[in-house]
Amino acid sequence: MSLLWVFFMTFQMHAQISDFDTIDFKKADSIALAYKGFKLDDLSYKLTSHLNTDVERFRAIYMWVCANIKNDYGQYEKIKRKRHRFRDDSLKLYQWNASYKETFFNRLFKQKKTICTGYAYLVKKLADLAHLDCEIVHGYGRTSTTDIDKLNAPNHSWNAVQLHGKWYLCDPTWASGMQDPMTHEFTFQYNDGYFLTSAELFALDHYPIDKKWLLLGNKTYSFETFLETPVIYGNAYKILAYHKAPEKLHNTVQKYEKVLFKYQLIKPVTSEQVYLVIDNGSNSKKTHPISTSINEQSLTMEYQFSKDGFYDVHLFIGNNLISTYTFEVKG
């Protein structure tokens, strides 16, 4: 039994979109983008009844949610303030949550606006109606603007779905579009990288309350490790399958020590597309690694700092900002 369990967890660990390379999602996407109704039973049937596989049916549901539901930043801020206000009074928090449900569902079903919990709820509800095994996963989400020191309560929700015997992860909220940080205006801008993402990449900025939804097999991965990971951006999900090194956001190295950057790609890139932007606090410069190797979708780079100091290092592939690290360089 133990050998079977190890085999299952190893098999599970590599669940990702590449499992479905032979599936063409064009039909599922076209159905999702064409249909605008919002009566749940009818919506689920319309989205899935003319598709042949479970992964296509789930794709249509996921795409519809991402293309039709706006991220409601104002609602997110209100809920955040209330939860902070009642953080030491569980009874008042429960009462406020109960009283807010009507408003929450009204904004979702009448205005097509919601927060991450609403996205995850809607994906699961539509999947349930289509007889697909889907769960809501609650936990912690990290972005470039997240204050790690204040990440002491769950702040994000996403989905896990079982397809052909494997569990897969997806984030319809972050896939749906972009929020302007100044005006909070939402713009639909679908990011396919958050659909059936590799668990290894997903874990860099998603940490579930229930650790089984890490889907990392028997790999040990603590919340403290999660807080130390590099900052990755939405563009990383379009290009990377895994992020391997550097393993931490904050790094200390010696002057002229070789620093290793290592990634697994999901699509080909050229060495000319790969570069670093290094900022010392007063100016920034674009530079190429001292060596770049691309072999069977594995990208490996090396860089050396010639001066001591403290640096922000940003990885770009083409025009896409992929990840950020800091380096303290000692002479």
Low-confidence stretches: 1-11
- Using only CA atoms, what is the Rg? 21 Å
The DSSP helix count reads 11
Number of strand elements: 18
- Strand fraction equals 25-35%
Residue-averaged pLDDT: 89
What this model shows, in words?
The protein has helices at 2-13, 26-34, 40-48, 54-68, 73-85, 90-111, 116-129, 172-176, 199-202, 223-228, 236-239, and strands spanning 70-71, 113-114, 133-141, 156-163, 166-170, 177-179, 186-188, 206-208, 231-232, 240-245, 250-254, 258-265, 274-279, 284-287, 291-295, 298-304, 309-317, 320-330. The chain is an alpha+beta fold and 331 residues long. The strands form 5 sheets. Strands 9, 11, 13, 14, 17 and 18 form a 6-stranded mixed sheet that branches. The longest helix is centred in the first third of the chain and has 22 residues, at 90-111. It is globular. The relative contact order is 0.11.
Features:
single chain, 331 residues, alpha+beta, 6-stranded mixed β-sheet, 4-stranded antiparallel β-sheet, 11 helices, globular
SSE arrangement:
Blueprint: H1 2-13, H2 26-34, H3 40-48, H4 54-68, E1 70-71, H5 73-85, H6 90-111, E2 113-114, H7 116-129, E3 133-141, E4 156-163, E5 166-170, H8 172-176, E6 177-179, E7 186-188, H9 199-202, E8 206-208, H10 223-228, E9 231-232, H11 236-239, E10 240-245, E11 250-254, E12 258-265, E13 274-279, E14 284-287, E15 291-295, E16 298-304, E17 309-317, E18 320-330
Parallel strand pairs: 1-2, 11-18
Antiparallel strand pairs: 3-4, 3-8, 4-5, 6-7, 9-18, 10-12, 12-16, 13-14, 13-17, 15-16, 17-18
